[in-house]
Amino acid sequence: MNRITSLFGIQYPIIQGGMVWCSGWRLASAVSNAGGLGLLGAGSMHPETLREHIRKCRAATDRPFGVNIPLMYPQIEEIMAIVAEEGVKIVFTSAGNPKAWTGWLHERGIIVAHVVSSSRFAMKCEEAGVDAVVAEGFEAGGHNGREETTTFCLIPAVRSATTLPLIAAGGIGTGEGIFAAMVLGAEGVQIGTRFALTDESSASPVFKEYCLGLGEGDTKLLLKKLAPTRLVRNNFRDAVERAEDGGASAEELRTLLGRGRAKKGIFEGDLEEGELEIGQVSAIVSRQQSVAEVMNELVEAMQRAAEKKYW
């Protein structure tokens, strides 16, 4: 047991990222049933869809699970009300000021973790009273911090800046990676890419197959004038690169992005015109597995790494 497993009431300090178009009730409940903490990704759900997934997740597991909520969500008040009404006990917030909702959630008995990309924002989390902080490095898929600090640099910096329970994220997809994060000062890890490519993920099978064939350098952080996003190479990404190289404004990039681009790519499997988001660690993931298989591999490899003599 450590502060992360105690805080969330879980067996292993492994949290599944609440990823858009991947993290439905099947994935979240499977991770929780395997001893980790599953998260529903509210960022790609209409409010009533989230309510449905919360209820299905609760029916599928008797273990703790939570909801990841981007604070820039346009219907944030409605989402928060549903989380409280449905008795969710754990919320991970991101993409916004943790002071905005932490007090409100605490008043309703909800544990709050917040995602940051710098030690400066980690200190703001402590001031806001959050219960744990997720420090996410540059390697992560999807939306990313502007600092472009790698996980290996970020974790020790955040550890020295705050006393909060610390969860490492970004580029972690193996048991050895978990062990390395712990050595650097983390008490738990949040894993996205590895779980996005499992059987239980709600992502398109076409998207999963494509990402399982990626190599080093096949993802790139773009859209920095809007919200930095790690994208896989395809027609849409090529168009973004051309626009950015040509000095496109934020408004021009917003027009190019349009609406529903991530859904088109990740959920519907449009490999050319969709927004394909995945982390750098996809380069070392080559086969689709069940969540149970992934969790077993992670735990066993972490234990082997901890027992190994390095000199």
Summarize the structure.
The protein contains 14 helices and eleven strands. It has 311 residues and is an alpha/beta fold.
Tags for this model:
311 residues; 15% strand; eight-stranded parallel beta sheet; single chain; three-stranded antiparallel beta sheet
Describe the model:
InterPro entries: Aldolase_TIM, NMO. It holds the Pfam family NMO. This is 2-nitropropane dioxygenase-like dioxygenase. This protein is of the alpha/beta class. It has two domains: 1-200 and 286-305, Aldolase class I (TIM Barrel), CATH 3.20.20; 203-279, no CATH class. Helices cover 42% and strands 15% of the residues. Strand 2, helix 3 (47-60) and strand 3 form a beta-alpha-beta unit. Helix 11 packs antiparallel against helix 12 (250-257). The two termini are 27 Å apart.
Show the helix and strand layout.
Elements: H1 3-8, E1 14-16, H2 25-33, E2 38-41, H3 47-60, E3 65-70, H4 76-85, E4 90-94, H5 102-107, E5 111-116, H6 119-128, E6 132-136, E7 142-143, H7 151-161, E8 166-169, H8 175-183, E9 188-191, H9 193-196, H10 205-212, E10 219-222, E11 229-232, H11 235-245, H12 250-257, H13 261-267, H14 291-307
Parallel strand pairs: 1-9, 2-3, 3-4, 4-5, 5-6, 6-8, 8-9
Antiparallel strand pairs: 7-11, 10-11
Helix pairs in contact: 2-3, 3-4, 6-7, 8-14, 11-12
Number of discrete domains: 2
Overall strand count: 11
- Derived from helix and strand composition plus strand pairing, the structural class reads alpha/beta
Major sheet: 8 strands, parallel
Pfam families: NMO
Protein name: 2-nitropropane dioxygenase-like dioxygenase
Keywords: Dioxygenase, Flavoprotein, FMN, Oxidoreductase
InterPro entries: Aldolase_TIM (IPR013785), NMO (IPR004136)
